[in-house]
Amino acid sequence: MSIRPVSVVGIGQLEVEKASAKSLRDLGAAAARRAMADAGVDRADALFAGNMLSDELQGQKQIAALIADQAGLYGIEALEVRAATATGAAALRMAYFAVASGEADLAVAVGAEKMSEGIATPALTKALDAEEEVPAGATLIGQNAALMRLYGQRHRVRGDAFANFAVNAHRNARQNPYALYRHKRVTARDVHSSRPVHPPLRLMDCAPICDGAAAVVLAPREEARAYTDRPVHILASSVATDRFRLQDRRDPLCLEAAALSAQAAFRRANVNRNDVSLFEAHDAFSIMACLLLEAVGFARPGQGWRLAEENAIGLRGRIPISTMGGLKARGHPIGATALYQTCEIVVQLTGRAGKNQVRNATVGLLQSVGGAASTVITHVFGA
Amino acid sequence: MSIRPVSVVGIGQLEVEKASAKSLRDLGAAAARRAMADAGVDRADALFAGNMLSDELQGQKQIAALIADQAGLYGIEALEVRAATATGAAALRMAYFAVASGEADLAVAVGAEKMSEGIATPALTKALDAEEEVPAGATLIGQNAALMRLYGQRHRVRGDAFANFAVNAHRNARQNPYALYRHKRVTARDVHSSRPVHPPLRLMDCAPICDGAAAVVLAPREEARAYTDRPVHILASSVATDRFRLQDRRDPLCLEAAALSAQAAFRRANVNRNDVSLFEAHDAFSIMACLLLEAVGFARPGQGWRLAEENAIGLRGRIPISTMGGLKARGHPIGATALYQTCEIVVQLTGRAGKNQVRNATVGLLQSVGGAASTVITHVFGA
Fold first, then answer.
1. B318: pLDDT confidence band, cut at 50, 70 and 90?
2. Of chain A residues 130-169, which have a CB less than 8 A from chain B?
3. SS3 letters for A295-335?
4. ipTM of predicted complex
5. Which of A74, A129, A260 sits opposite B243 (nearest CB)?
6. Which of residues 31-70 of A touch B (CB under 8 A)?
7. In this predicted structure, what is the pLDDT of residue A104?
């Protein structure tokens, strides 16, 4: 539990695109400025940037200082932080640290990723163990396919049973102006007939490669109303790791880092999972959404897929997920993803989600997954 | 000023080597375990890892979770943090955040770099602007050479005037069992006759490429004596950025980020530069050590080289620097460097530096430079 409570006082999102005309630095700077404008400020004490792939795709390091310069924030503290595919949430946690510790009174967490420049897959694969997994042919999609296959065998579930994860995400994306697939209609039949990219994973089980940037501004809770009439509070922030390699885990279908970080976050936030109004899960793959629902305790092991099939994950369901499109349909520009999710939770908890509004939304849960859940970062937000 | 004061309660260093037999993950895990053993603990709440080059040289991301697993720290929070060549100090700052905010009661900051695998230079160059500097042929060493040339022209100083930066570093390294060049004697003549690698920079103006790892354990100051009889306190931690590109700066010889972060750190620590007993500066290049001495205010602009020439930087001088060998002679395994420096400051402030002991050492200053000082991170330590 942090000593000084922290609130979100500004949000900024850019449209997710297959290939943005903006450079990576411009994406990051634009999102940061947009979030700062929303908070009504033109300075901040610190900026923390999340980006996973710029070393390879842009040949660029020190991206936080570059984004700060591009945003006109001369002199500001700027650092980058990473946790593979959970990188955006790591940036959020660092900004949270900065405000909670009293080191900053106003901190920007910004995520930016431009995956359209070059080939993302080899760089993504570096999230896995380069000595023991990658030489054996492992990839992120391959590991998720292996998890889905194992799940299907153990629980006697066909891949088609996961279809509503994608259908729900695409349905919700249609009202999100920042979503990559805001103009696309997707039915269960579309999912069933989509290309098997890595069986049993079909194309529609997988989040797309894309470009985007999003940001939030954090301030001490006691000062939040100086910036906004509708602050949303970070009730808890927690990170846990699992055994790094899938084969070292007792049960690969049991995402221990997700369970541990959720338990710690609920304890610190003093809420329980039944208090959660909506869950922005890391649905990079439908099997991952399913396993997270089980790890957090919304379903018993082997039952997560039923929440999709029964549409308990819908906007009026017991545990709405991907309420603005999720990674699947809003898009998954990696370093930016958790910042998009944070913005979406803020939109929901402040009653601004329009047709996608979850009723009586008071507590939002966010989970971000690094690699094959070697690292999981959980945040709990409250109105 | 952080809300909850933080202390260093354990340190761990491995020998810096040209090419370590250990893998990157083993280097990091060994340093973390060594620091934890020094603090008398076998668990911690969180681990923050500093590494700059593993994406390219080891094909590995998510290095913090990997090091945590390798160190046997199942379940622990683990994140990586970066600021190009200042990366180690960024990891230290994040661990400081974690404890200062109350999110962790025991946090490990570990830095590890294995530069002997592959070619480091192209990856190092990514610290510069990939759009506007690198296409014009800029490299880190090229920018430091340009700064040295400009300095020489403006202040009418020959390159040879910097020789004692290297001589002092090498002299001090001979009593440091972890230093790369602990068996090497270097005279001013050796410096003057060393190969001009990028004129006016000679080989002996530059820190070496090498492998290494170091770590510290942080705890709340009020609990520090539960772990050690001789805690060293982090009096301040501060980060500032400059205009990213050298050509955008009003005066490239004036390292604004170094000046800004030092001023902020001194203010928060409630000390002034005359209180500083020793300065572990970022002497990756002799010109950088010189410019940092000026930016912090130990010398007027154009006079920093005189501190070297007059040996005011020696162990008995007015402002001792590189007291255990510095980046030049202990070595500069990038992500680990600021953690080595932190360990060395702890050794000095606890009176364990043997023949290298700075008398009455009570305040230690640490500065880490990202790129050509686009980011500078300052820490102030007190006994």
1. very high
2. 130-131, 134
3. HHCCCCCCCHHHHHHCCCCCCCCCCCECCCCHHHHHCCCHH
4. 0.97
5. A74
6. 46, 52, 55-56, 58-62, 64-66, 68-70
7. 98
